[in-house]
Amino acid sequence: MIQSSGIDAVLRAATEAGRIPGVVAVAANESGVLYEGAFGKRMQGGAQPMTLDTVFSIASMTKAITGAAAMQLVEQGKLTLDEPLGRFARQLAEPQVLEGFDASGAPRLRPARGPITLRQLMTHTAGFSYDVWNADLHRYAEVTGKPGARTGLLAGLDAPLAFDPGERWEYGINIDWIGRVVEAISGENLEAYFRAHLFDLLGMRDTGFVPTDAQAARGAGMHVRDPDGSLTAMPYQKPSFPEFYPGGGGLFSTGHDYLRFLRALLNGGSLDGTRVLKPETVALMGQNHMGALNVLPMRTAEPAASNDVELFPGMAKKWGLSFLINTKDAPTGRSAGSLCWAGLRNTYYWLDPKKQVAGVLLTQILPFGDPAVLGLLDAFEGEVYKALA
Fold it and tell me: Which of 57, 60, 186, 253 is catalytic?
C-alpha cells in the first residue's frame, strides 16, 4: 500500500463539501492493491455510509469486459477482427445509414457502403451511434418510437448507422452488438459467459447484470445534478433487462471487483495464477486500432443524461480494443499510451501500462461528464502518482 493521507484528504474534502455525496476509489500496480478508500454516504441524506463493498451501476465500463470476452473468442479462432459480421444479424449484414429526414419528417435511409467488422465495432468506427450524443439519432428514436439500447429491449439495437463503416469515430451501441456476437458464438447469454470465463476466474463475486437481494442492499443511490449545482437523490433501483444483456453498458460492480479485472490486464491477462487472456492479446488490445482517425468530442443531444464531454481536451486521442488511449502524458502523471473509459453515471477507470498502475473512481451522478467528479478524478489520480513517486 502507498501513503494514503493525501488521497484520503482529496476524497474526504469532496464529500464533506457536499460536491459529491459519496465515492469509492481504488488503485493497484503489478504487485497488488495500492489504495482503497470510501467516503461519504451511499445516498445523499441517507444513513448508510459509502463502503468498499458498495455496489454501483458501472454502465459503459462494461465495454472493456465485453471486449475481453470477444478477444477470448479471437484467441480461439472463432472470430477475427476484420471479417464481415453479417452472418450474426440482419442489422450487421444489411446496415442502413440515416442521411436525414424528408419534408414530412420521415427518416431517409440508404444502404451502407461496406461491411461491419469486429475491429470497427471495438473502436466505435462502425457507424453506430447513441441517441444521447447524436441529434439525428435522437430525432430518429422520437419519430419511430424505437427504444434505446439501455432498455434491454432488442428493438433498441435495430438502429441505423450515423455514417458509413470506417468513415469516422462516434460513440455508440457497437459493443452491445459485440455482446450479441459473443452470445451467438458461445451459445451462452452474456451473464453466463462472463461468469464462467471471466468473473469466477478473476474472483469478481460482486459483478453481474442483475444483483442479488444482498448485493442490491449495498447499492449506491442515484443522484441528478440540478442546474444550480445541487443534487437530487433517488433510491437505488435494481436493473432489468427483459430481452438481452447489454454488453455496452449493463453491469453492476464494486471498486474491488473492477480493479481485479484491471489488475489482470496489467499482468498480461492473468491474476493470482489464473489466465483469462494471452499477454500478446492484452498488448494488442492496448494499441491504436483506428489508424489516422481521432476520437471526437461528444456533444450532448440529451442534457439530462450527459454534458458535452471531451476527456483530454485538445489532445489527439485514439481507440483500442476497447479503450480510449491518450497520446501524450497527462498532467496527473498518467503516461502517454494509457487506457481508460467511463460509465454514464460518472464512474471512471484508467490503466497505465508504462508505469504499471491502474485506478477506479466510482460515483452515481447524472449527467455524465460531471465537472465535480472529473475534478475529483484528476485529484485522485494525481495523488496516486505522487505517492508512487
Answer: 60
